[in-house]
Amino acid sequence: MPVTSVEKDLNTLSMTIVADFASPLQRLWDAYADPRQISKFWGPVEWPATFVRHDMATGGRSHYYMTGPNGERSDGYWEFTAVNAPHSFEVNDGFANEDGTPNDMMPSMKMKFEFEETANGSRMTNTATFGSVEQLQQLIEMGMEEGTRSAMSQIDAVLEDLATFAAGKGTELQILSDTQVRITRVIRGTAPQVWDAHNEPELMKRWLLGPDGWTMPVCEVAQEPGEQYRQEWENTKTKERFGFEGELLESAAPYRSVTTEKMIGMEGPSTQNELTFTPVDGGTLLTLVITYPDVATRDMVLATGMTDGMETSYLRLENEVLASAE
């Protein structure tokens, strides 16, 4: 069990938890930065967590929920106020509603996570600061210390599972709910490089092509929230064309953008695409959370095998665009 000490200080309204690990500092940091990995240990054993949003950058947000043994659900959020990779990050932490907005009826706190190298690996120090003695007491009575110990008991297995999260594994798809999926891929490049490759038309036309035999004759990019974008592809042999269009809803370079997406000429509601870039060991973790209007639409799209085409594009991005930028 990695937790080595827990100290409560009523004078400073804080609780400090120290945990030691046999893994290198960067490996420990990446476990917190990757939504796939932190989901495996943030919740207690009996209340596993699912992170549906995780923007690990100053100004970013996270939204997660924990599922109880009888199907109960408890949502939480983080607001990142400072990030200094791979040494520390600070968040406002609290309970959330199911849409990720703060639940102001419940207590909240500030948390600072600090990471440092040790002779045997790495250490994490988590200091939680509360707004009042009553909030501190309330969270202690709700089992915060016991829950944290239970959650941390799972992290060693995550840190040792290097193969599952290796950079060369390729594009992965995870179903989060009836209407949401998450697609992840570690791209060999910096976050600004990967951001530019997703936002500069001339670069996009070089790699965002799916299987061989397609070109991208139309690539209109939205620069500011509220603007529209349009992308069209053409088969070099059959001249068949298709495309997507939508609106840019949020943009925070170089780590997050949110858009709507709809196939050109098709009726019905759009999807919402949340794209996040997070620096990790080996490059930049690309995370794409897609929200579909219903389960039928989700299953119809997944049946197309879209991740195969995405993997082909990401390989082209690494080998033909980012490699030439080094």
From TrEMBL:
What this protein is called in its record is ATPase
Every copy of the Activator of Hsp90 ATPase homologue 1/2-like C-terminal domain together lies at 24-160, 191-319
The species this protein belongs to is: Neomicrococcus aestuarii
For this protein, the record's InterPro entries field holds: ASHA1/2-like_C (IPR013538), START-like_dom_sf (IPR023393)
Q: So what family is this one in?
A: Belongs to the AHA1 family.
